[in-house]
Amino acid sequence: MHAVCEFLLVHFHLIDTTKAGTNTRELIFVRNPVIRLQIFLKRKESNMREVAVLGVGMTKFGISEKSNLEMFAEAGLEAITKSNLEPKDMEALFFGNCLGDFEEGQLHMAPFAHAELGLPLSAPATRFEAACATATVAIRHAALLVGAGVYDVVLAGGTERAAKMGTPLATRTFAMACQAQYESMSGLTFPAVFAMAAHMYASKYEIPLQELKRHMAEVSVKNHRHGSMNPKAHFQKEIAVETVLGGMMVADPLQLFDCCPFSDGASAVVVADAAKARDRVKKPVYVAGMGQASAGPLYVQKDLSRVAAREEASRQAYKEAGLGPDDIDVVELHDCFTIAEILAIESLGLFEFGKGYDAATKGETTFKGKVVVNPSGGLKAKGHPIGATGAGQVTEIVEQLRGECGQRQVEGARVGYVDTLGGDFGTVCNIILRS
Q: What is the CATH number that goes with domain 187-255+290-434?
């Protein structure tokens, strides 16, 4: 069967290797010729164009005195400049922000960001909100519309001043992404949600809670070590397991260093038709596959040791890319809490269910390990400005695939995975990128 599919692809010129703007790069990269043929026929049938990421831009994450618009203008102009384009070339702006009303008393921020960047009047500016998955959802929609031929070039990303609100208000407003009728009214916040997930995980897989806590601490240590090599990370200092285990209790069993910070920051990417990308940048990065799924409130989901929306989103992304977990070289995933990284590496198929809890302890998720997870430092150390987080993850993967990450460069990275979770497992958006 493999030989027959290879014959059809090559000898009957189903792949035109001389024509720019085809999906040749993706099809040649996919190892299985049966899947390669399926992808080709599907795209011929759907008439979707190949999509690339050109320039990327990101502010330092942390605590900033700049406004949301100032931060996004900085990131957006960096992305446009690195694309060898100008603001007038943007055909749309997909702008992510979650809590601008609480942070600055500002809603309807997208057209004001449009003006700050000097985009043309003809380029519509649309605000996206999907809790922590906001920017990833915006980028996915940009890729879909570019692939469909609606636009050729779109600027997408997000901005947030979460740290500016202070911990009490930030905690309260973040919790608004829980289901208001039952969850919020019970006093539930995100640390409590993931604390319940940790208890469920320990019980389900019969892992003593203290043992699980120590392995969770290793996740924090690993991500802080990665963040120490990232000049744009919120936290750039290594920590020890004892520091994590000696921290203030937030929601049993999660302690202070099990939790990501509230951060200020912005990030943006330029998404474009791949046929035009090759004339603009030396190393375009291509969108290989995407997926997005939604789940309901926690009482519907019930088993918090499995993230159903993530499993579905990853299934979609892998299928579209014609790839599997073993093909992934580097991952930026949603580690809002240490237990969240453990749940994610299992849901993405990188580790078996119930077996990923000690991956960080064994060195399997750092450099020279099985797969490098969160080389940027992740949400845990790089930071978590919720409206910008997903674009920051895409920025890291793009720079990894281009070999631009310096000390934290993943050697030989060709395929990268972006995983962003919104709310308490309600929204998950995944993007697979390749060089």
A: 3.40.47.10
Residues 322, 303: Cα–Cα separation, whole Å: 29
What is the C-alpha separation between 223 and 123, in angstroms, rounded?
A: 38
The span from the CA of 193 to the CA of 198, in Å, is 9
CB 117 within 8 A of CB 73: yes
The amino acid that residue 202 corresponds to is A
- Going from the C-alpha of 298 to that of each of 42, 77, 188, 190, 260, the distances in angstroms are 36, 40, 11, 12, 21
Report the run of H or E that residue 310 belongs to, with start and end. Answer: helix 308-321
- Which residues 6+ apart lie within 8 Å of 186 measured at CB? none
Share of the chain above pLDDT 70, in %: 89
Catalytic residue among 5, 98, 114, 132: 132
Segments of the chain assigned to CATH 3.40.47.10: 51-164+265-284, 187-255+290-434
**In sequence order, what E strands does 278-383 have?**
285-294, 330-332, 372-373
| CA atoms of 48 and 54, how far apart (whole Å) | 18
Sign of the CA dihedral 307, 311, 317, 323?
positive
Task: Decide if pLDDT at 9 tops 60.
Answer: no
Phi/psi region, residue 79 (left: phi>0; alpha: psi -120 to 50; beta: rest), is: alpha
Which candidate, 26, 68, 2, places its Cα nearest to that of 285? 26
Q: Provide φ and ψ at 12, rounded to 5°.
A: -100, 15
Candidates 114, 226, 334, 384; catalytic one:
384
In terms of CATH, what superfamily is 51-164+265-284? Answer: Thiolase/Chalcone synthase (3.40.47.10)
Q: pLDDT tens digit string along 384-396? A: 999 999 999 999 9
Q: Is the pLDDT of residue 61 over 70?
A: yes
Token code pair at residue 325: 């977990």
Q: Taking the C-alpha atoms of 87, 102, 61 and 233 in order, what is their torsion angle to the nearest 10 degrees?
A: -150
If you compute the radius of gyration of the chain from its CA atoms, what whole number of angstroms results? Answer: 21
Q: Stretch 164-181: mean pLDDT, rounded?
A: 89
Residue 372 CA to residue 363 CA, distance in Å, equals: 9
Can 224 be counted among the known catalytic residues?
no
How far is residue 392's CA from residue 361's CA, in Å, rounded to a whole number?
26
Condensed to tens digits (0 to 9), the pLDDT of residues 137-170 reads 999 999 999 999 999 999 999 999 999 898 899 8
Q: Which residue has the tokens 């920017």?
A: 135
Q: Give the total residue count for the chain.
A: 435
Do 270 and 83 meet the contact criterion of CB atoms below 8 Å apart?
Answer: yes
132 is catalytic: yes
